[in-house]
Automatic annotation (TrEMBL):
UniProt name for this protein: ABC transporter permease subunit
UniProt keywords, alphabetically: Membrane, Transmembrane, Transmembrane helix
Phylogenetic classification of the source organism: Bacteria, Bacillati, Actinomycetota, Actinomycetes, Kitasatosporales
Transmembrane portions of the chain: 21-41, 61-82, 103-130, 150-169, 176-194, 230-251
Keyword Secreted set for record: no
Matching Pfam families: ABC2_membrane_4
């Protein structure tokens, strides 16, 4: 099959699975819903904040407060896009139809990445504008320095999380095993490693810890990360590239 035909078949496979709509829809709803909740709380508490908290008040980042949970839905999306075919046995049929495994794998990743980016872009802009509407006088404008970068960065962050999950799922091939590793890693382990003094210097180079830097406009207090927003995003891109390349290498050399 030619590349356009492979891309079309991957698009057909992704959109015909109900879990695709559910996971991407959940990523939008959870990110927006929690962002709205935190924005309401932050707006109500602003007058009682200390001087230091007001100086580091980041209305843009607050509107993305739901991203921590929303990324879990993106992880599920990335894992299911790759591993569904292994769990159903359809991978043998797919590889028989597209023997060039590089074309098969990267076409799947490309289609899912575009879809994740579109949903991420909608989620980021809606979360930002609704959050700023709630924050009112304490909010930021899209034209303020660093804000547009942070909003696009939020969309890129969601996309990269999905791509990283695709790479891990290609390595492990099992949806349960992939989710069993990725969920606790991003939800618990990474946060512990990134916030405990003894492991902070290592934890800040993990993909999510480095990637979230792109969504910050006002640096938090005592931020000693040796990289800025774009440096953090590049670290995350390096993790994603490594996961996808290892996933492809294993797909190329293993039996279906």
């Amino acid at each position: 099959m030619a590349v356009p035909q492979v891309l079309h078949s991957e698009w057909t496979k992704i959109r015909s699975v109900a879990s695709t709509v559910w996971t991407l829809g959940l990523a939008f709803v959870v990110t927006l819903g929690l962002g709205v909740l935190i924005s309401v709380v932050s707006n109500n508490d602003f007058d009682s904040m200390s001087r230091e908290d007001r100086l580091t008040f980041d209305p843009t980042y607050i509107s993305f407060a739901g991203m921590g949970l929303g990324q879990l839905a993106m992880i599920v999306f990335g894992v299911l896009v790759v591993s569904n075919e292994y769990s159903t046995g359809m991978i043998r049929t797919s590889l028989a139809a597209v023997p060039r495994r590089g074309v098969f794998f990267f076409s799947k990743v490309a289609v899912a990445t575009v879809l994740a980016f579109v949903v991420g872009l909608i989620t980021a802009f809606v979360s930002f504008f609704v959050g700023q509407l709630i924050l009112g006088d304490h909010g930021a404008a899209i034209g303020d320095p660093g804000v547009l970068r942070a909003v696009f960065g939020a969309a890129l962050y969601m996309t990269l999380i999905a791509m990283f999950s695709m790479g891990i799922a290609a390595m492990l091939r099992s949806p349960l095993l992939s989710l069993g590793i990725l969920m606790p890693f991003f939800f618990i382990i990474s946060n512990i490693l990134g916030n405990v003094n003894a492991t902070k210097k290592v934890g800040q180079y993990l993909p999510d810890q480095a990637g979230t830097k792109i969504m910050q406009v006002v640096p938090p207090l005592h931020d000693d990360a040796p990289y800025g927003p774009w440096g953090g995003l590049l670290i995350m891109v390096a993790w994603v590239a490594a996961a996808l390349l290892v996933g492809y290498a294993l797909l190329r050399h293993r039996d279906a």
